[in-house]
Amino acid sequence: YIKFIKRLPDEIGKAVSSSNECSIESTVNLSQNHGKVSFVRRGISLEYSYECCFKLFEKPSIQTVHFNGKGSFNVSLKKLKAYSDECQCELSICNSNPVIGLNLIGVACYRQGIKCHLSEFKEERFRSIVMLPRNPRNSKKAGTGSSEDANFLEISNSDRFSFVTDLEICLAEDEDESWGYRLRDLLLSAHLWSVYTTKEWADVELCMSRDNVNHLSFPAHRAILSARSPVFASIFKATNEKKVDVEDMEPVLFEDFLFFLYTGTVRNTENLPDLWPVAKKYHVKTLQNISEFA
């Protein structure tokens, strides 16, 4: 599975002082080129932190999650009953705009450190009942309470409820025999980057010395680097050493360079001008052309 966490703003919806219910929609973008990939049913699991807070007379906001710019899901809380100290809500996730070739097969959330699977009640729609405590006045900041409160975002307004959890949205490829919707593997770059992030089957360490004090290493794969860079190919042909020194540079910049080698995609366009000398040094012509006039 691909897993990564994207934090949302502390307040998803602004409080509205009215007795009528209202809601404010929010959006978040997820990409497949991060984290781990599972080869079970060629699946993808997108994990991110979901936060929602609302007043007693407000309708919780609906959040739209855009996946890779090609599909979206709706994540919503629906108030069922409100009591003096807690509120009963229905957490639901539906595949509102399906990604072609991928089905929503499961959703889970983490409550007090325990993974809880949501029940499927319609095709590609999942839901679960959650109980949210009313936030006490002058509460401690989130994360400072006991482990039992780890799923709740604490706010110092007594008439507000809040909920925070890590959601895991699982997709899998269609199992039918119709493959006419595409002529290329949409998961190729995700699979290749996953072997870098997980360090599986890594057979070389790219070593960098920062100011002769801090030493960094980047586990990588000779075959991929050699196929993408003739300079790396020459280095690995000349030596079988497990550790190879590389030019000192900002670690984030070097990993952006590796990201391009593994996926063929630019991860951070703001770093393109700084990537040009790196691409030139290792003779990565495509990245040279992309970054030369950035």
Automatic annotation (TrEMBL):
Gene3D superfamilies: Potassium Channel Kv1.1, Chain A. It comes from the Eukaryota. SMART domains: BTB. Residues 202-270 form the BTB domain. Transmembrane segments: none annotated. This is BTB domain-containing protein. It comes from Daphnia magna.
